[in-house]
């Protein structure tokens, strides 16, 4: 029969081959796109002034500009994202990939569990253009439920049982109505300042009206990274604060760095 190409061509097999080609192309495309963040990797095989860039296959894609919701734009990938950061740590052995030994205060230098990303130094916004995470003194339309503990005025105890500060306010998330941080007044030298305490590190002792934090010790609250603006927190500040408390789970006490038997 004229025009009946199916008598000579296996259509099902052709469709299968087309699907395979499409699927392989899709995997390569997705693998390239996911390299917009975090690539190229930096190898420690060479000196810092002559780094070996590791990108694997396929290569990282060409930069793409994304317009941000509330104005401005960002270009990714951005190979210069962390070029200005000095890592305050040295390898414990000469082979590539050796663990790093901190040389300074790892909780502030961003080493190991205290590491943080160089995020935008601007606050996260809601769909309406307002700062998303703010204290109750700013979000006056929010309040703590009468059945929940109100930590304001309560003392904050560190993992050593010593007082680190006093809670002065509560920071809420306007996008997902919940508490994100406690604001704590701490003593630093001869002065006082306000720092944030992530709610995920908090345990409330409602009977004794205490706020307990196991990750860091009382005296270490004085070194928690601060805020440039007392009524807002930027994405970069959030990462640094989280890194400080997270790093304390390992670095707050040298005994925490030893194996448990």
CATH class of the largest domain: Alpha Beta
Residues in helices, as a percent range: 10-25%
Question: Major beta sheet, specifics?
Answer: 7 strands, mixed
- CATH superfamily assignment of the largest domain? Photosynthetic Reaction Center, subunit H, domain 2
Q: What is the CA–CA distance across the termini?
A: 82 Å
Helix count from the secondary structure assignment:
3
Reading the helices and strands in chain order gives HEEEEEEHEEEEEEEH
Average pLDDT, to the nearest integer? 86
Explain the overall architecture.
The chain is of the alpha+beta class. The protein folds into two domains: 1-63, Photosynthetic reaction centre, H subunit, N-terminal domain (Photosynthetic Reaction Center, Chain H, domain 1, Irregular), CATH 4.10.540.10; 133-257, Photosynthetic Reaction Center, Chain H, domain 2 (Alpha-Beta Complex), CATH 3.90.50. It has three helices and 13 strands. The strands form four sheets. Strands 7, 8, 9, 10, 11, 12 and 13 form a seven-stranded mixed sheet that branches. Strands 1-2 form a two-stranded antiparallel ribbon. Strand 3 and strand 4 form a beta hairpin. The longest helix has 23 residues, at 11-33. 18% of the residues are buried.
Task: Give descriptors for this structure.
261 residues, alpha+beta, Photosynthetic Reaction Center, Chain H, domain 1, Photosynthetic Reaction Center, Chain H, domain 2, 7-stranded mixed beta sheet, two-stranded antiparallel sheet, 17% helix, extended
